[in-house]
Amino acid sequence: VQLVQSGGGLVQAGGSLRLSCAASGFTFSTYIIDWYRQPPGEQRDLVALVNTGGRSIVTDSVKGRFTASRDNAKNTAYLQVNVLKPEDTGVYYCHTVVDSRSYWGQGTQVTVSS
Fold first, then answer.
1. Which of 2, 15, 32 is nearest to 110 (CA)?
2. Distances (CA, A) of 76 to 15, 31, 45, 84
3. Is there a contact between 29 and 20 (Cβ–Cβ < 8 Å)?
4. Which pLDDT tens digit goes with each residue over 3-58?
5. 83 Cβ contact list (under 8 Å, min separation 6)
6. How many angstroms separate the CA atoms of 54 and 49, rounded?
7. Residue of 13, 22, 6 whose CA lies nearest to 65
């Protein structure tokens, strides 16, 4: 199982980014993909997930701004992040659990300037 992330970068407040998570080594379409955010010096917290049916579920802190999605034909999950705020700064990770084992992407840095 491998999750390879891309996207991220430096953006001004109010801007948008799309983070990608390319999966391999498992039947992608049958697994939930989670997205976590780790601000500097803080713990890694769940912000969104996309279920096997393609439904995006997000936490209250990002509701209306973040959307998780997936393209099963490309074995890729996405996190669209809009109306970014400085407090959204952090390393973003995609994650899944396959056969009771937890797998993480390598992380991608998102920095939002005010």
1. 15
2. 23, 12, 21, 22
3. no
4. 999 999 999 999 999 999 999 999 999 999 999 999 999 999 999 999 999 999 99
5. 14, 16, 64, 65
6. 9
7. 13
